[in-house]
Amino acid sequence: MGSPSALVKRLTEWRAQALRAAKAAGIPAEEVEILLRERLGWGPLERLMGRAPAGEGDPLEEVQALWRQRVEERIPLQYLLGKVEWAGLSLRVTPAVLIPRPETELLVEQASLWLQANPLPPGSCFADLGTGSGAIAIALAHHHPQLRLLAVDSSPEALAVAADNVVAHHLQERVNLLLGSWFVPLDPWRGQLRGLVSNPPYIPSAELASLMPEVRLHEPRQALDGGEDGLAHLRLLIQAAPDYLAPNSFWAVEVMRGQAPWVAEQLQARGCYRQIQVHRDLAGVERVVSAHFVG
Ligand SMILES: C[S@@+](CC[C@H](N)C(=O)[O-])C[C@H]1O[C@@H](n2cnc3c(N)ncnc32)[C@H](O)[C@@H]1O
Description:
The chain is an alpha/beta fold and 295 residues long.
């Protein structure tokens, strides 16, 4: 492996080369820094001080292998590292779950605002339908100790990842993981939920082929495919929710660009929702539709 200064030189050269490869491949430069920091603890300070990472063997070898997978196979960095930072939480992710997106934090924010305005007694139940890694359910349980979260997914592999995340955040007492399709596992809670949130699959099937390779090749199709018009699952979430919600409850979903007006219209037409609101994400996209279910 050579002396520490020889290692620093190799790391510096590799970093410069990886930054060039990232640019050519359209991968954000910060991913190189994240990889070096996460795997070697080699950040800007260490670089500045010319400090070599500690450890046995050749520390560059694993980083180089991971980076090759990132560039050549287009595997998302979060899967390669097995984790993501989201909504202030560290979450385990594997290819069995969608990588939680920054814009999905908006759903948690809107639920939190509603909870501030509508205080609920301890033990009140919210459902997170299509929980994937458990991100939304865990964030809500973490920030709102009065809530119990029912986190549903039809993928047992996804629920296994969610289970790890629930345990890692010590939320086993208040986050229940339920296997099944949408409302089916929620039958015992008919008419009792005080909130329902979901980031369902909403991409029209025909558009899946044109998604970026990171998503198309590596994220679970089951997490993306919204059927022919992209609205199959949203339709169900709108239609069935009134049977499961208690009067004066919260309802919110994430949607893709262009779907929000349709969702808002459908809610309006049902006559049992008030305060129907569309919220834009940081990119200005109408991303979340929320409503107050009056019963
Ligand atoms: C877009 S992902 C959202 C994951 C996570 N909630 C998030 O925001 O990062 C949609 C999730 O819905 C789940 N799903 C798909 N079809 C389902 C169904 N019929 N019933 C329950 N969950 C389903 C997928 O397995 C996937 O985990």
